[in-house]
Amino acid sequence: MIDIINNKSKLLGDDLKEEIKSGSRLRIAASCFSIYAYAALKEELEKIEELEFLFTTPTFLSEQVSDNIKKEKREFYIPKFSESGICGTDFEIRLKNQMTQKAIARECADWIRNKVKVKTLKESVTTQSMINISSQGSYVHYTPVDGFTTADLGYERNDSKLIGIMKTDIPEQSKFFISEFDRLWNSDNHLEDITNAIVDYISSCYKENSPEFIYYIILYNIFREFLCDLDEDYMPNEATGFKNSLIWNKLYNFQKDGAIGIINKLERYNGCILADSVGLGKTFTALAVMQYYSLRNKSILVLCPKRLEQNWTQYQGNKTTNIFYKDRIRFDVLFHTDLGRTSGKSGNMDLATVNWGNYDLVVIDESHNFRNNNAVHKDKDTRYDFLMKRIMHEGVKTKVLMLSATPVNNRYNDLKNQLLLAYCGDYSEMNATLGTSKDVQSVFRNAQKVFNAWSKLPIEKRKAKDLMDKLDIDFSIILDSVTIARSRKHIQKFYDINDIGKFPRRLPTKSYYPRLTDNMAVMKYKEIYDKLLSMTMNVYAPLAMLFPSRLEKYEEKYQIDLQSEDKNANSLGQGLTRQMNRENGIKKLMTISLLKRLESSVYSFRLTLESLLETNQTTLRLINSFLAGNKSAGIDKELFNYAAVDPDDDDSFALTKISSGKKIHIDLADLDVVSWKRDIEQDIEILTSIYVEMKKVTPEEDKKLNELFSLIDDKITNPINTNNRKFLIFSAFADTADYLYQNVSQYVLKKYGMYTAKIAGGNNNKTNEGGSPQTDRLLTLFSPLSKQKNVIYPNETHEIDIVIGTDCISEGQNLQDCDICINYDIHWNPVRIVQRFGRIDRIGSKNECIQLVNFWPDLSLDEYINLNKRVSARMTIVNQTATADDNIISEENEEMDYRKEQLKKLQEGTLQDLEDVDGNISITDLGLNDFVMDLVAYRKANGDPTGVTKGLHSVVAADESKGIEQGVIFVLCNRNNGVNINKQNRLHPFYLVYLKNNGEVVYNHLNVKSTLDALRATSKGRTEPLAELCRSFNKETKDGAKMAKYNELLQDAVLSIMEVKEENDIESLFKVGSKVLFQQGIDGLDDFELISFVVIR
Question: Is the peptide bond before 945 cis (omega within 30 degrees of 0)?
Answer without folding.
Answer: no
